[in-house]
Specification:
This protein is an alpha+beta fold. The protein is 46% helix and 20% strand. It has helices at residues 2-6, 9-60, 204-256, 271-320, 327-351, 363-372, 394-411, 454-459, 467-477, and strands spanning 78-82, 87-90, 94-98, 145-146, 149-150, 159-160, 165-173, 176-190, 193-202, 359-362, 380-385, 389-392, 415-423, 426-433, 481-486, 492-499.
Length: 504
């Protein structure tokens, strides 16, 4: 059952289309999820860096870590850490954090800077503070002070790094734990030394969006694959329905052996319609071939029956009355029977696809040999023979030239002309006579097997109507042609064309 199912073109097409769509959907889904995650993660990184930069700006402009106004809520956990890893400031509701420079959630009190002085540290004459401030209270060392002294809440201006470093972690804010994208931004040269601001942006939106998209894909993809499989199954069934009709009709033709039947041809112009038309053309050619074969067998049986019956009669009479035995007639019937059998055997070999040989044959020499084997007849033979070589079977080509000469001598009144010459890539043999000729309407029919025209039949001396059919078949199988037209003398002119043999 499984082999039968997957042996179906429809099943294989459906399976193939479904697999292709599945691969495409998986690739597209993975690309969408990756792009969505990357986009939302990048957005969270930007938000985290923005929050960290706001805090860093406050620190750089002189705000002490303990006095920072940090963001409230669970979306932006913030830490300010010094170079020794001590937490100087953190969000109010921060309970736990990971993925930053410090896991502490409670800030420590920074140490007092002795150089700054609690009372301003300035002398009476407006002496400079530790940052080089002058007596008028305007420091030149990026510090600020009044009366030549530093303020307890005063810090040096800091330098904010150009780029923030990213990272991923989690934090628990007000009892709720979430994943965050953290940005670490360094602020250098502050009153507290080098500080690092960590700010986070929640990844809940990214996780929710990716989870929703993944759920939609897990639900939608199987449904879509089912729809694709069903549509492909229905479409292929409709497309292959004419093929099933062709198969059924061919099976019926095989069972009934009725070659007159034809397969249905769909009205479309696709490959199936062309297949149906080609099948019908093949059936028509096969029907013609079989019918021709049947006629051939029937005609051959008829032609063989006559000489065999005549020969048997003569032998029976000779056995009973030896003095009445017609030896010449018996010999003539035997020769006719032998020639007919040889012709039928050659046609059978040609029909079986026997390929001609590759021997080089000089047509002029071949024609001369055929003429020399014929006794002087009632008609004169005029020749014009030029040497020209072709490639093929010498015996078959001799049979062609001999059949053409026999036909011309049978129908000529007083003269037969034979010429051999080369015309470009062709070797041409022309055999003409001054007889009655062949009517134009019959010029193709005479090359059919066992066909003899009525006037020729009246004058025929025993031919079976195979000579011209054999001659044309041999010519075609040698890559040439055999045609007939009117000769200048008024009779028939047969022209044999064969390819000239290549130069050795």
């Amino acid at each position: 059952m499984r082999r039968r199912l997957f042996g179906s073109v429809r099943a294989r097409a459906t399976l193939g289309a479904t697999l292709v769509v599945a691969v495409a959907l998986l690739a597209a889904g993975a690309s969408v999820l990756l792009a969505l995650r990357s986009n939302l993660t990048g957005q969270a990184s930007s938000e985290a860096e923005s929050s960290a930069r706001k805090v860093a700006v406050s620190i750089a402009t002189g705000t002490a870590p303990a006095a920072l106004e940090l963001p409230d809520g669970d979306d932006t956990p913030v830490q300010v850490v010094d170079g020794d890893g001590r937490l100087l400031a953190a969000g109010e509701d921060l309970e736990r954090i990971s993925g930053t420079g410090s896991s502490a959630v409670k800030p420590v009190t920074p140490p007092v800077d002795d150089d700054g002085g609690d009372d301003g540290g300035g002398d009476d004459d407006g002496g400079s503070d530790r940052h080089g401030g002058n007596g008028n209270g305007n420091g030149n060392g990026n510090g600020k002070g009044k009366g030549g002294g530093g303020d307890d809440d005063s810090y040096a201006y800091g330098e904010i790094a150009d780029d923030a470093e990213g990272g991923k972690g989690s934090a628990t804010v007000d009892g709720e734990t979430r994943d965050y994208r953290f940005a670490a931004l360094e602020v250098k040269n502050t009153r507290q030394g080098d500080l690092t601001v960590y700010a986070g942006a929640s990844l809940s939106a990214e996780q929710s969006a990716v989870g929703t998209a993944l759920t939609v894909m897990l639900i939608g993809f199987p449904v879509l694959l089912g729809v694709v499989g069903a549509v492909t199954w229905l479409v292929t069934r409709r497309a292959l329905r004419p093929v099933e009709g062709i198969r059924s009709e061919m099976s019926a033709i095989t069972a009934s052996q009725d070659l007159a039947r034809r397969v249905p041809e769909p009205a479309t112009h696709d490959e199936v319609a062309r297949l149906a038309r080609t099948t019908n053309e093949t059936l028509a050619a096969l029907e013609t071939s079989v019918e021709r074969q049947r006629r051939f067998v029937a005609d051959a049986s008829h032609e063989l029956r006559s000489p065999i019956a005549s020969l048997r009669t003569q032998l029976e009479v000779g056995a009973a009355h030896p003095e009445l035995l017609d030896v010449d007639g018996a010999v003539a019937d035997t020769v006719r029977l032998q020639e007919l059998a040889a012709g039928l055997l050659l046609l059978a070999r040609l029909d079986a696809g026997e390929r001609p040989g590759e021997a080089r044959v000089d047509l002029a020499t071949l024609a001369g040999e055929e003429l020399s084997q014929r006794p002087a007849g009632r008609v004169a033979v005029r020749t014009h023979l030029e040497p020209v070589e072709v490639a093929g079977s010498r015996s078959q080509l001799a049979r062609v030239v001999g059949n053409l000469l026999d036909n011309a001598q049978r129908h000529a009144r007083s003269r037969v002309d034979i010429a051999v010459r080369a015309e470009g890539p062709w070797a041409v043999v022309e055999v003409g006579d001054d007889g009655a000729g062949v009517p134009e309407a019959e010029r193709e029919r005479i090359f059919e097997r066992f066909v003899r025209l009525d006037d020729a039949r009246a004058r025929d001396d025993g031919g079976a109507g195979l000579g011209l059919a054999i001659a044309r078949d041999v010519a075609v199988r040698h890559g040439g042609s055999l045609t007939v037209r009117s000769s200048p003398a008024g009779g028939a002119l047969f022209e044999l064309r064969l390819p000239v043999a290549p130069v050795a």
